[in-house]
Amino acid sequence: MSGALKSFFNTSGIMSGASNPTLDIIQIGTPSSLTTDLIPMYQYYEYGWTAWIIDQASIAKAGDIQAIEFALDGPSQTTNSLQKQRIYMGHTTMSAFPSSGVQEDLVTTYGVTNYQRVFGPGTGSTITYSVAKAQPAWNLVNLGAGTGVSQFTYNNTDNLIIQYFNDQYPNYISVGDTQDFYYNTNTNASAYLYWYSSQPSSATRSSLNPVIKLHVFG
To answer: What CA–CA distance (Å, rounded) separates 162 from 54?
Structure first.
């Protein structure tokens, strides 16, 4: 073994100073009796938008976010396939949204950095949400597949903001068949809007943060 190679190994032949990345599945929130059909998306109208902030301490690990899981409770429909779904992630120093006039443009309005699409190339991709007999039903969405889509590299310094677009036009789901998602409260750390015929000028601030799991490799 050459001297150059030896510098990377200790006397036992084991690499020294090398990291050993691992995949951690980090759960944000705990399913309880609280459910909503608003966040992470409202499925009834043709278009919906949501965003929510997760504080750094809840993640506490730097690395690539490879997947996200959503916790569902059972509606009358056990399965819904939603078309043209898109998910974005970014770093933010915000811990809550402002008191009025929440805007969709997170980068210009709120200075979100490293903002990128992590799911849904082109006009978006289909996500099928299924409800199991045992609750909660965890639904996995793999991130980073497709042209213009990548996994998100989280820095474990800033807070994480997740943005979800649900564009069902020209179709929408009967209101009785929308899925319910588990949430915990986090004061003013989320926002949502939706419309059928006309777009509202701003989103509604909320304290409903969806219960999720993040798959972080690092």
So the answer is: 8
Closest CA to 216 of 71, 62, 69: 62
Residues 6+ apart with CB under 8 A from 199: 47, 193
Global confidence as pTM: 0.87
Tokens representing 187?
Answer: 């004061």
For residue 109, give the amino acid letter: T
Based on its alpha-carbon atoms, the radius of gyration of the chain, rounded to whole angstroms, reads 19
**What whole-number distance in Å separates Cα of residue 173 and Cα of residue 153?**
34
Write the pLDDT tens digit of every residue in 104-154.
999 999 999 999 999 999 999 999 999 877 789 999 999 999 999 999 999
What is the C-alpha to C-alpha distance for residues 8 and 182, in angstroms, rounded to an integer? 47
Q: How far is CA 5 from CA 18, 20, 21, in A?
A: 13, 19, 21
CA neighbours closer than 13 Å in the CB half-sphere of residue 183: 23
What does the alpha-carbon distance between residue 218 and residue 210 come to, in Å, rounded to a whole number? 24
- Amino acid identity, residue 200? P
